[in-house]
Amino acid sequence: MALLEIEAVSKAFGSLKAVDDVSFSVGAGEIFGIAGPNGSGKSTLFNIVTGIPFGPDRGRVRLDGTEIQARTGDAIARLGLARTFQRETSFDGLTVFENALIGAGFGKPGRPARVIREAAAEALDVVGLPDGAFGRLAGELSVYERKCLMLATAVAMQPRVLLLDEPASSLTKPEIEASIGLIRRIAARGVTIVLIEHVLTFLMTLSQHLLVLNNGRVLAAGAPEAVIADPRVVEAYLGTRRARP
Ligand SMILES: Nc1ncnc2c1ncn2[C@@H]1O[C@H](COP(=O)(O)OP(=O)(O)O)[C@@H](O)[C@H]1O
Ligand SMILES: [Mg+2]
After folding, report:
1. pLDDT of 19-55, one tens digit each?
2. Which of 165, 148, 191, 158 is CA-nearest to residue 46?
3. Ligand 1 pocket member 47 (CB < 6 A)
């Protein structure tokens, strides 16, 4: 059975169908990639799956068989679904370690403080933020470090499924390479990953399955090589069917 099942979900803003009848499922242990031009509904899809800040107008979302589409974002997170945001998001006035502690302690009442501290330190280690950075204020980090911290805070929640919204955006080439390594490291810990990215090479390197959205609808889905060779995908990305030179 799929760990995450999305069944015919839709979300409209007025007359705009931002996500329109989208279905797919993600197996345990997979890295599942989602691509699509700007405005195609990728982030809205993550919003309605996680309930942050809103659920779908229609459709069902199941996490390990449990329907979650009508639950609040915090309840969904407690069930084991964590996410990052397209823009670096952290508690800027708190330290790196305090940010990770919030993730590690979230939704786990009664968890001993020592266990929470260990989970926070381990998550920071996974993303490569060294002990020397633990006392720095989140607001003073570089863009790459902030992305790593947001990722660590989500990893510290020890989710079953982690949704990453454009982790490679605004990064340099070496930083993108480093991100690929750390996403692989997180996946190797048994976390199922759904990855939105505009950079297709990044998705191609990491994903076992690829889905392309366009105007809120699924344009193509399947094995990554087949999906990017699909003429409709080429057209959506390049705007025209061009012959190869
Ligand atoms: N909260 C919102 N209110 C109104 N329109 C929105 C809102 N969020 C997204 N949209 C619109 O929905 C469409 C899809 O946006 P989004 O999901 O952010 O696309 P992507 O992440 O693929 O770039 C866009 O046209 C966007 O302007
Ligand atoms: Mg987006």
Report:
1. 999 999 999 999 999 999 999 999 999 999 999 889 9
2. 165
3. no
